[in-house]
Amino acid sequence: MEVGRLPISAAQKGKLISAGYTTLSSISSLSPTLLSRDLNISETDALEIIKHASLGGTMDDCSSSRAIIGAQTAWDVLHEEESATRITTSSVDLDHILGGGISCCEVTEIGKITALTSLIQLAVNVQIPVHCGGLGGKAIYIDTEGSFMVERVLQIAQACAVEMSTSYASSHNSLPPSHILMQPEDILENIIYFRVCSYTEQIALVNYLDKFISEHREVKLVIIDSITFHFRQDFDDLALRTRLLGGMALKLMKLAKKFVLAVVLLNQVTTKYTEGSFQLSLALGDSWSHACTNRIILYWNCDERYAYIDKSPSLRSTSAPYAVTSSGIRNSVSKCQQILRTQAT
Amino acid sequence: MANKLIRDMGLPASITAVFTARNITNAKDALSLTEFELMELLGVGLKDVSLAVDHISKMVSPPRQTALSLMQQHIRNERLGGHLPTRLKGLDEALCGGIPFGVLTELVGPAGIGKTQFCFMLSILASLPESFGGLDGQVVYIDLEFKFSSKRLIEIGAKNFPEVFCMKEMAQKMAGRILVFRPQSLSEFTESLQQIKMSLLTRQVKLLIIDSMAALVSGDSEQGNPKQNSLGWHISFLKSIAEFSRVPIVVTNQVRSHNSDQTSLYSFQGGKGKDMEDDSRYDSHLVAALGINWAHSVTVRLILDSKSGQKFIKVAKSPMSPPLGFPFHVTSSGISLLDENGVELMGPEISRIHNQGHRIFSNLVDESML
């Protein structure tokens, strides 16, 4: 009899059995009040019994702060948050509003019609070696739309390689030795590319990533361009869609936490009818918008590109300008922004 | 690989039998269910189900490549670095060499601006022998607006490449390479796409042109959603055949008028956009006929428009080019640029479609077009 194994007094055991509670599971789901009434004991005693029953009868001394196995205290989480590394976007203003860049351990969603440059920039920047203040990692690029352009990657990689060597030269007053210099070819080599052709493959790949990354620990960034595409074409069963997407989002979050890597998803833009007018919003509906930790929307304002933080648990909802140049994402340098800056100071 | 059969995946025989018994035959069926649903349906423990799902996932996952291997593949397999030159110097430079292979390129513009002329020119370029810088292949031209004119095509060819088109048999050969197809309805178009797929994959066809995509749906639907949904299948189909055959696909799109700018704003932008709204915008505010869902699936979007009498080609969406606009005109030899350097356009100007100052009388050359 399971109840017999509980580290409680014989009298209480007797009461339990006479009241018909013989298995642990029959006790653990009860409320203390109910149990105290059934057994005619005090609520404190009842709570004690339930606690023991929930722990499966084993009496291990777990400290009070770790009452739930697997949980952390907020203090531990703070340490983790502080040590979390970030991937720079190459634009100081963007990094500023993002608190230093795209955060590892988190899922970030970017909304834009096309954000190829920003995504590639991240895939290149994640490789900046540790001695240059980067992560020295690799990137996985999951292409669902077929819009990946190697030519563009090469352009951005070349620009990044040049910048790294000049910044090294200026800080060390000498040309960098060739072994620590990154060649554009190396950067391209470190972008692992998967082409996904159906939503089944997308789900399969997200499932498989767990295994793949545990074999390739140097991966620090997973990009999905875009999460939306296959789920917007030819998908009649919307309930199924929501379920599949929800499952995928959970798995991606797990990945981000487990391997301390950043997950960046691109979402498409759609129009939504609210309050009598059509407005732009991100695709996949309201339930999906809960799935990501951070959400950044890229849009045009006047003649400038802006990034807006639409949702984030830790960052202020604000926007910042940026520019897309042939060498990638850079700070915006127009009059409009200078005015903003003077206003801010 | 979504339809890969579970019994061919090398799972343990007992698990395979359970899947088969519950009529879950392929990866799509299995992965559309959560692990708990599978447990319930199959009556197997969580451990076995997770192992099976992991295994199926691994089998179905696409192969791993790197950006470097992709680039080497492109360099090895393709002439001209994977681009079809348009022979418009500035535009070619902006697009890294021309119309890219393997993706969709869209031409948007008001009626009579020169979209079809552009398509004619590209058809000739793709069919030219390699010694003349062409792709030496067949062209499939899907003419949905019944505007294809062989006479005009050969005229453009003869003006630009007299050495090829003046020989009678060569002209015949060139024109013989361009297959014009005129589907009457959406279903006929769908059917033809299936056939085209085969000829694209056998690598004889080097260019696919669809003029125009919007004509398909503008006829038989009202507005909004039905338009998008009816094309959903075609969009993904076209994208996938472009990619697997590495053939450039050029699609034209019509414009329709649009009465307010609200759709171009996010809710958080609020009234901000209103300030910059000027009256001139109401003159002729046009948007591409196929909506935002379609816009997502084209990789390069070229807008042809006219502003105060001057026609422009604008690189409105391109992963490799800055937002440039090139003034052009249409002559008897096709489209030619007036300025090779182009003008860099700032902000949303690049994606705006103007149709102002259409000079009907001033330009004789215009008259012969459409």
Automatic annotation (TrEMBL), chain A:
What is the protein's species of origin? Trapa natans
Name any Gene Ontology BP term. Answer: meiotic DNA recombinase assembly
The record's SUPFAM superfamilies line, in alphabetical order, gives: P-loop containing nucleoside triphosphate hydrolases (SSF52540)
Function text = Involved in the homologous recombination repair (HRR) pathway of double-stranded DNA breaks arising during DNA replication or induced by DNA-damaging agents.
Gene3D superfamilies named among the record's database cross-references? 5' to 3' exonuclease, C-terminal subdomain, P-loop containing nucleotide triphosphate hydrolases
* The protein, known as: DNA repair protein RAD51 homolog 3
Q: Which GO terms describe its molecular function?
A: ATP binding; ATP-dependent DNA damage sensor activity; crossover junction DNA endonuclease activity; four-way junction DNA binding
Pfam families, sorted: Rad51 (PF08423)
User: Where is it mostly found?
Assistant: nucleus
The entry's localization annotation reads:
Nucleus
Entry annotated with the keyword DNA damage: yes
Keywords of the record, alphabetical order, are: ATP-binding, DNA damage, DNA recombination, DNA repair, DNA-binding, Nucleotide-binding, Nucleus
| One annotated Gene Ontology cellular component of this protein | replication fork
Question: Which family, according to the similarity comment?
Answer: Belongs to the RecA family. RAD51 subfamily.
All copies of the RecA family profile domain together span 83-269
From TrEMBL, chain B:
Q: Which GO terms describe its molecular function?
A: ATP binding; ATP-dependent DNA damage sensor activity; double-stranded DNA binding; four-way junction DNA binding; single-stranded DNA binding
Q: Tell me which domain of life the UniProt entry assigns to the organism this sequence originates from.
A: Eukaryota
CDD domains membership: Rad51B
Q: Which InterPro entries match?
A: DNA_recomb/repair_RecA-like (IPR016467), HHH_XRCC3_RAD51B (IPR058766), P-loop_NTPase (IPR027417), Rad51_C (IPR013632), RAD51B (IPR030548), RecA_ATP-bd (IPR020588)
Q: Does the keyword Nucleus apply?
A: yes
Alphabetized PROSITE patterns for the sequence: RECA_2
GO BP: any one term: double-strand break repair via homologous recombination
Family matches, as Pfam families: HHH_XRCC3_RpoA, Rad51
Q: Which GO terms describe its cellular component?
A: Rad51B-Rad51C-Rad51D-XRCC2 complex; replication fork
Q: Where is the RecA family profile domain?
A: 80-255
Keyword terms, alphabetized: ATP-binding, DNA damage, DNA recombination, DNA repair, DNA-binding, Nucleotide-binding, Nucleus
Quote the subcellular location field of this record. Nucleus
Q: Which family does it belong to?
A: Belongs to the RecA family. RAD51 subfamily.
User: What name does the UniProt record give this protein?
Assistant: RecA family profile 1 domain-containing protein
What species was this sequence derived from? Trapa incisa
Name the lineage.
Answer: Eukaryota, Viridiplantae, Streptophyta, Embryophyta, Tracheophyta
